[in-house]
Automatic annotation (TrEMBL):
It comes from Halotia branconii CENA392. Signal peptide: none annotated. CDD domains: retropepsin_like_bacteria. One of its GO terms (molecular function) is peptidase activity. The keyword Protease applies. The keyword S-adenosyl-L-methionine does not apply. Gene3D superfamilies: Acid Proteases (2.40.70.10). This is Retropepsin-like aspartic protease.
């Protein structure tokens, strides 16, 4: 009788040991699924997670630049200048201009014509180093907002270039995003 009991204890211990990894895997799988409600959620009084993705979307993307997943924004490239993409950029929720996406520019530069259309008055001066290494001085002014496909930056100082033919969208606008430049569009991925 003793040997039969020992065998049964050994067999049942092996069965428990064999089942433990499966139970642990199921516990982790269940926990991972339960703990990933996305970026926007609340816990109700019963302790249940309520997803709020539809309520948390604070910006609406224009129809031609719909977000891929509430975080990545795609903006169509209108054309290219020397291979560099040109996209539509909206200032102060009213005026849209074509601008170069300049990954090498630390700040945003607008043309004198853009400043005139936006009725901007110079409020300061800025020295900048341009691509050829020389130093230039620009007048500056503030804009209330700059928007591109759902990405918005508020209260930015922009340089006004009297001789530029097109504006440059710089890192002061998209510095919190990683950019992916595709064949026909630019993607803005939050960092």
């Amino acid at each position: 009788m003793k040997s039969a009991c020992k065998r049964w204890i050994k067999i049942s211990n092996l069965a428990v040991i064999a089942a433990i990894p499966t139970l642990i895997s199921l516990a982790f799988l269940h926990r991972a699924m339960a703990e990933d409600p996305g970026a926007c959620f609340m816990i109700n009084s019963a302790g249940r997670t309520v997803r709020l993705a539809k309520l948390c979307s604070t910006t609406k993307a224009p129809s031609d630049s719909a977000p891929l997943d509430n975080r990545v924004f795609r903006v169509p490239i209108k054309r290219r200048l020397g291979g560099t993409p040109i996209i539509d950029v909206t200032f102060n929720d009213k005026q849209t201009f074509e601008m170069i996406v300049d990954t090498g520019a630390s700040g945003t530069l607008i043309t004198l014509g853009m400043a005139s259309t936006l009725k901007l008055e110079p409020t300061g001066l800025m020295k900048a180093q341009i691509a050829d290494g020389s130093q230039v001085q620009f007048s500056t002014s503030k804009v209330n907002s700059i928007a591109v496909g759902g990405v918005i930056a508020n209260n930015l100082e922009v340089a006004i270039a009297p001789k530029a033919g097109i504006g440059l969208l710089g890192h002061d606008f998209f510095g919190n995003y990683n950019l992916t430049i595709l064949e026909r569009e630019v993607e803005f991925h939050p960092r």
